[in-house]
Amino acid sequence: MKLGTPCLLLFLTLSFETSLFAQKTTPPPKKDDDEVVRVDTELVDVPLIVVDPAGKPVLNLKQTNFAIFEDGKTQEVADFAATNAPFEVALLLDTSGSTRADLQLIQRAAQMFIDSLRPGDRVSIISFKTAIDGDRKAPAAEVVSGLTDNRATLRSALERVSTSNGTPYYDGVMKVVEEVFSGQPKDEFRGRRALVALTDGVDSTSIATFDETREALGKAGVIAYFVQVDTRPYFEEGLLGPCEGATRFSQAQIRRYYRSFGSKANPEQTSNFCELGDFERLAISKKLYEIANSEMTSVAKQSGGKVFPAGDLNDARTAFRSVAAEIGTKYSLGYYSSNGKRDGSYRKIRVELRGLPTGVQVRAREGYTAPTN
Fold this sequence. Notes:
Largest sheet: 6 strands, mixed
CATH architecture of the largest domain: 3-Layer(aba) Sandwich
Strand order of the largest sheet: 9-8-7-10-11-12
CATH superfamily of the largest domain: von Willebrand factor, type A domain
Radius of gyration: 23 Å
Structural class: alpha/beta
CATH class of the largest domain: Alpha Beta
Order of helices and strands: EEEEEEEHEEHHEHEHHHEHEEEE
CATH topology of the largest domain: Rossmann fold
Helix content: 25-40%
Number of strands: 16
């Protein structure tokens, strides 16, 4: 861009996208005295945890203990946050009928988790409810409380959590991305946002799909932790026997089961629950829980998070404590990619440790999707 008057001040306009990156400006390069180049710079955030051979977090590390690579190429670390930096946490509570115990157990487990976090950590609460749409009752996800570090406000929000007649789990995750984490984080929370979900992961009624939620979480750069409650025995107890009194699959769940067979799927297969025999009902249930486990494991691994199995809601308390402990020992790195192409490609991230004893390991975000023009 040529400028006619030498004394004019030059301005650089940085263009940003809402994506998985927290963003930070850098000085623009100049081609000559009267020409500037428009540059898009986006900080790629990489949350990580370092553990010793016994699995205990390694604390008090420095930026020099880390080296970061993108698609095998060394990247310069531009930002570093130690383990004492605060976190923003979206706490998603599955309060559908498939949760094994009652609502009070869920509320107590959630309160214990919040109490386990540090004073500077901010929390939002998302749960399910039964919404009235005319003469029809439909399950829906709702943000009960936005991000806050006010523990009294969060305790009051937990008391307002209700139950639903279905499981809009994917919709709940989309609420986290589109509402709770919709804006760019403040500097102290950059690269330090987490989804913590108490759920069995078996969706029944969502409008959103798993692929949509996985992509949205990836773009938002959110670390995903799942406290995976085993509700399968409880759920399958209600599946068998006469159709009238049985716990039914939703149409979406039956379709998901048949789609799992890919090209071998028979489009003529029934979607009518009452036409399914007991054997087929159990086969569908088994596959749905396998799909849920695979989905949660995949998202957690790619984001640098983890799945914590819980046999029931009493075990969930122990799992929540483990999640809170890990959040309190997370580091985060940030770098500007040396690959300036805005081609929408997936780029692999690898973090190496330097100057640490043998056996120390790092678990970090595995990659991100580059923005497009």
